[in-house]
Amino acid sequence: MKDQKALPGHDLPKSAIDALFDMAISRRRLMVAVAAASTATLAPRLYAQDEKRPRKGQVIVGLTQEPTVFNPLMPYYEADSTVFFALFNPLWHVEPDGSLVPDLAVEVPSLDNGGISSDGLSWNVKLRKGIKWHDGHEFTADDVKFTIDLINNPKFRAKTRQGHNLVTDIKIHSPYEISWKMTSAYAPYLTQLTWTMIVPKHVLGAVADPNTAPFNSAPIGTGPFKWGSRTAGNGVTVVANPDYFGTGPFVERVVFNYVPDANVLYTQFKTGQIDYAGYNGIPANYFKEAKALPDRKVVGAPIAQIAGIALNFGRPYFAEKAVRRAMYAGLNKKAIIDLIYYGLPNPSESYLPKSSSAFNPDLPKQVYDLAAANRLLDEAGWIRGSDGVRVKNGVRLAFNTATISGNPQREQTLQLIQQDWKQLGIAMSIKTMPAAVVYGDYYTKSQFDSLLLSSSYGTGADPDCTQRFSSASIPIQGGNGTNYYQYKNPEVDKLLLAGQRTFKVAERQEVYRRIQSVIREDLAFLPIFQEEPVEGTKSKLMGYRPNANVQTNCWNFGGWYWEA
Questions:
Q1: Which of 16, 155, 340, 503 could form an SS bridge with 29, CB 3.0 to 4.6 Å?
Q2: Do residue 352 and residue 492 come from a single domain?
């Protein structure tokens, strides 16, 4: 039968996907999915009053990207989230081992504690008492409801409404207890709430337009640090919140210094001007030297981000699979990794990091083969013009690939790719722009041809990639999400829904492994490697704990301190 044919790269027939899509959710499935959350509620949490460590000194963080977005619900990127973790809290956060630990909530809801119903549709959250916003107002359930409502407000420029748009019938039972219904079960929501920072109703709810509120340039949170100041083009300073309910803070302030050139940032780390050189702060070519520096701790810290070429499917040449296949065959991954990144990162074929439980290890391995790439283009009817550039139906195979300025490794990567693609009759020009420009309208409104960037494609630590690859997540086509590539595949859409609606871990893993197969077959983007950036701190700066489940290793700023 036609519907029994296996999908390309899949082991199960299409009918199995349909069965998953329609499958009823049982109590047993939900128990598997939330077991980790229920045990996480028992995990100990250290509170400031239990710590007698004195508060002293400051931490200077070096960033190669400038933080420019300070409302954590609006579209943002890695550098912005570095500041968020100092200022705000989610209901619960994710640890390096993937466990969920309460923050603003007393416990992570689960079947065992009655926080989630057996069908996954009813949620109840109990909140911690005595938490104060930075301006002294009390944090309550009103703020949680306001945050979810604001995200779902179509007039608000939310980073994503994925998952949140399923929340309905929010009820406040007391200042410290809130419940809601889900219109359909959504397994990734537990994880999604780990990177949903709660914002104050009494501040943002009092303005006519939250998109342009003063809050967005001088935010008020519940976190270990309060807003201090910002100098555009230079950086941000936050100061200790002495009333913080959680761990610390143990330093007087944190200064986020924007140093656009990674070589300059490394020099400042080397000379002691920078205390922590985070993501992209230490170029790979300095790794060996940096590890030998006295009074420094330097490590390769694998993260969930996958480096690759993002393609705008709105461009006619990228819409053709033969072109994408040829471009991918013309990527010399080994040269990029060995020569430019000194062998540190691992090549990738997936959007997921290898640490993910849903990672598909059986994806086909890319083979660098310029001859095969040329044949693909020949067979697809792309003819070389007098200038050597291929043309088809009046469209030249010429475009630009942009990346963030000040990152020599990315610029060198593009130069290497440019040389190879030229041999294929592809004219690729290189654009370098400041991060604030790249991640502004250029990216979010799909104005780019292609981009060399690193992204986390899952929903936090969850393998769900709906916001990246669903056809309903394309902003310039009226969707909400971060599918700026304009990628569409009906089968991926259906698989994504199946993965969201089942809570059984094994079934979810199978769904997302198949999604990886389809995306790899389609080449929705051209994956190169999983990032393993080199990061470093001064030896006496304690508390740094790499966490591949978040966008920044500054996720636990409250616990950082200087050893005497």
A1: 503
A2: yes
